[in-house]
From TrEMBL:
InterPro entries the record matches: A-crystallin/Hsp20_dom (IPR002068), ACD_IbpA/B (IPR037913), HSP20-like_chaperone (IPR008978)
Signal peptide location: none
Domain of life according to the entry: Bacteria
CDD domains (alphabetical): ACD_IbpA-B_like (cd06470)
Family membership: Belongs to the small heat shock protein (HSP20) family.
Gene3D superfamilies: 2.60.40.790
Species name: Pontivivens ytuae
Protein name: Hsp20 family protein
Pfam families assigned: HSP20
């Protein structure tokens, strides 16, 4: 079983601790290691999940965001041609990968390139939840105060 060391991400991100804790335990929830994937930080609030999907056409892949999860699945279309493999090393079995997303993280796009599926994610905190500075006023600044 392979495990990923996500400790560098803990030091450089704020608000994603829950995301990385859940990703850290993804191997423990019954999922297989197929297909292999990478998670990378591409900017301050941007991330990319890259999944190796060699052998799958774009119409055989499905990406859904639901219930705070990103669900990526693939299923090969029925192959009617009769072939005899001497060695079969390219796995094209059906798969489903689930990634738990942190709050305010959403997928912004996906593209398939050279057998890799790239899914871009961005963290967008609403203005109402962002910290804001509150000015401190002195006692003399309060309206209705009369100086003696």
């Amino acid at each position: 079983m392979r495990t990923q060391d996500l400790s560098p991400f803990y030091r450089t991100t704020v608000g994603f601790d829950r995301l990385f804790n859940l990703l850290d335990s993804v191997a423990d929830n019954g999922q297989t290691g197929y297909p292999p994937y990478n998670i990378e930080k591409t900017a301050e609030d941007a991330y990319r999940i890259t999944i190796a999907v060699a052998g799958f056409a774009e119409d055989e892949l499905n990406i859904e965001a639901r219930d705070g999860q990103l669900v990526v699945s693939g299923k090969k279309a029925e192959d009617k041609t009769e072939r005899t493999f001497l060695h079969r090393g390219i796995a094209t079995r059906a798969f489903e990968k689930r990634f738990q997303l942190a709050e305010h993280v959403r997928a912004t796009g996906a593209r398939s390139e050279n057998g890799l599926l790239h899914i871009d994610l961005v963290r967008e905190v609403p203005e109402a939840l962002k910290p804001r500075r509150i000015e401190i006023q002195g006692a003399n600044a309060i309206e209705g105060t009369v100086e003696a």
